[in-house]
């Protein structure tokens, strides 16, 4: 259930939405131009009384945007509202004019409200799964890594390739030579260990809580690096 604010600047617009149907699924809260309790709302419907309300609605949109992230829906009093583009430009999420069918309006509102709880639900599910199964998961399509199921970290190409190599050899020491050939496709350059150490340093800064005491990427003295998860 969501809190939906209802701010009426006229009487005609209310007939275009089924208030009783909305009340069955959500809580309707009457608000005034003072925007009482706007911080507690998931959405607010502003019912335009006539075109003279344009400047007032523009001011209301600006105030709402400063105080809340709720959906802002405007119900206009005409079929072709002169303020529609202005409302949208100021940050209204949807502007319903007289040409919109009540059922269409209802579906749009309900679909938007359904999305409010989905991100948190998905985050909780992902967090639970990752805590149970793995602390670190590569995401090749994003060139990133998901840490503990709730924090996605974007990597450079070299950082991702290094972490991918270490993941494939989890718990085993991967030699400097193997890492260098994987990252740079050659074995003729000098200062190989320095170049590898530089990539490891930047990678550790992104995924380790303490770079000086790394938990995931362990240094295997004189040999290379090992992933420990």
UniProtKB/TrEMBL annotation:
**How far does the signal peptide extend, from start to end residue?**
none
Domain of life, source organism: Bacteria
Native source organism of the sequence:
Enterococcus haemoperoxidus ATCC BAA-382
Q: Which InterPro entries match?
A: OmpR/PhoB-type_DNA-bd, Sig_transdc_resp-reg_C-effctor, WalR-like, WH-like_DNA-bd_sf
| PROSITE patterns, per database record | OMPR_PHOB
The alphabetized UniProt keywords are: DNA-binding, Phosphoprotein, Transcription, Transcription regulation, Two-component regulatory system
| GO BP term, pick one | regulation of DNA-templated transcription
* Record Gene3D superfamilies: Winged helix-like DNA-binding domain superfamily/Winged helix DNA-binding domain (1.10.10.10)
Q: Could you tell me which CDD domains the record lists for this protein?
A: trans_reg_C
Q: Which GO terms describe its molecular function?
A: phosphorelay response regulator activity; transcription cis-regulatory region binding
Q: Which residues bind DNA?
A: 126-229
What PANTHER family does its record include?
A: REGULATOR OF RPOS, TWO-COMPONENT RESPONSE REGULATOR ORR33
**SUPFAM superfamilies reported in the protein's UniProt record:** C-terminal effector domain of the bipartite response regulators
- This one is known as OmpR/PhoB-type domain-containing protein
May I have one GO cellular component term?
Answer: cytosol
Q: Which Pfam families match?
A: Trans_reg_C
**What are the residue boundaries of the OmpR/PhoB-type domain, all occurrences included?**
126-229
Keyword check for Phosphoprotein, yes or no: yes
């Amino acid at each position: 259930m969501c809190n939906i604010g209802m701010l009426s600047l006229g009487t005609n617009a209310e007939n275009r939405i089924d208030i009783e149907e909305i009340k069955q699924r959500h809580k309707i809260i009457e608000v005034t131009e003072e925007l009482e309790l706007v911080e507690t709302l998931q959405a607010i419907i502003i019912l335009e009384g006539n075109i003279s309300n344009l400047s007032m609605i523009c001011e209301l949109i600006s105030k709402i945007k400063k105080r809340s992230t709720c959906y802002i829906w405007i119900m206009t009093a005409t079929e072709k509202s002169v303020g529609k583009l202005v409302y949208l430009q100021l940050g209204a999420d949807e502007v319903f004019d007289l040409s919109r069918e009540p059922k269409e309006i209802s579906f749009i509102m309900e679909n938007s409200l359904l999305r409010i709880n989905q991100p948190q639900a998905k985050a909780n599910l992902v967090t639970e799964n990752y805590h149970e199964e793995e602390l670190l998961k590569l995401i090749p399509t994003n060139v990133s890594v998901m840490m503990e199921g709730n924090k996605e970290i974007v990597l450079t190409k070299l950082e991702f390739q290094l972490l991918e190599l270490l993941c494939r050899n989890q718990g085993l020491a991967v030699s400097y030579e193997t890492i260098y050939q994987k990252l740079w496709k050659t074995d003729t350059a000098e200062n190989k260990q320095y170049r590898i150490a530089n990539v490891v340093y930047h990678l550790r800064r992104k995924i380790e809580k303490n770079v000086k005491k790394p938990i995931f990427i362990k240094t295997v003295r004189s040999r290379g690096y090992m992933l420990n998860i």
